Amino acid sequence: MAEAEIDKAMIVNWALVELGLAPNFSIDTETKLGGLVDIFWPRAIARTFGLHDWTFCRQTFVLTRQEATPINGWTYGYDLPGGILGPPLKLTSDALCERPLRDFALEGKSAFANEPVVYARCKLALDPVAWPPQFADGFAMLLASYLAIPLTQDAELKADKEAAAIGTPSTGGSGGLFGRLIAQDRAGSPVGSPATTDVLQGGRASSEPWHGRW
Fold first, then answer.
1. pLDDT (tens digit per residue) in 141-175
2. Using CA atoms, how far apart are residues 25 and 95, in angstroms rounded to an integer?
3. Which residues contact 59 (CB under 8 A, 6 or more apart)?
4. Global confidence as pTM
5. Residue 92, strand partner residues
6. Could you tell me the pLDDT band of residue 182, with boundaries at 50, 70 and 90?
7. Gap between the Cα atoms of 26 and 187, Å rounded
8. CB 105 within 8 A of CB 205
9. How far apart are CA 170 and CA 150, in angstroms?
10. Cα–Cα dist 53/151, whole Å
């Protein structure tokens, strides 16, 4: 028998079982539980995807150049891709992402540069069915910590599930299940050279706040 697809409903039910509750969540039924999931699911998304630049959701885009000449002094304006999580990880002038831009600006949903062609490496929002099973497992654990108080009124249980997912406060969110996943993800990626250092650490945009969509 083929294994069931890991979707949002399954992950929520994993979280309920972690809290000692019946796995009775369905996305097709409007319930009080469904309302709580609607509240805490986006928070769990923001936290887990923000922990690390996960390779499974990275994607490189060639940015669409805007027809209008920017009024802010840059030569070109570009549309940032829809459905990305946070600002681009890197802006480059080549598809291999080996030549990071040093001069650029990010404003809202646009990027600005003096290069005629710009590529962006981004984190893409993916449906749960595209998540690695290990990531989905850790996500369910963290979601359980968010649901613990409203469903069980047990603060200790909340703390236990959070520690299992991301570690104790002393680890700064780099422990638990996700700490191990981050280490594995880093180990499976090639080590970049100084020339490929994250552009947002060296470019002009590093001093200009930009808030992505979560």
1. 999 999 999 999 999 999 999 999 999 888 877 89
2. 43
3. 121, 122, 124
4. 0.82
5. 100, 119
6. very high
7. 37
8. yes
9. 25
10. 31
Instruction: Compute the distance between CA of residue 62 and CA of residue 107 in angstroms, rounded to an integer.
Output: 18
What are the helix (H) ranges across the chain? 8-18, 32-50, 133-152, 155-166, 176-187
Contact by Cβ (8 Å): 157, 165:
no
Tokens at 110, concatenated: 């646009």
The pair of three-digit structure tokens given for residue 80, joined into one six-digit string: 């940032």
Whole-angstrom distance, CA of residue 98 vs CA of residue 199: 10
Calculate the dihedral angle through the C-alpha atoms of 63, 67, 69, 72, rounding to the nearest 10 degrees. -40
**Cα separation, 166 vs 156, whole angstroms:** 15
> Is 27 exposed, middle or buried, given 0-12, 13-18 or 19+ CB atoms closer than 10 A?
exposed
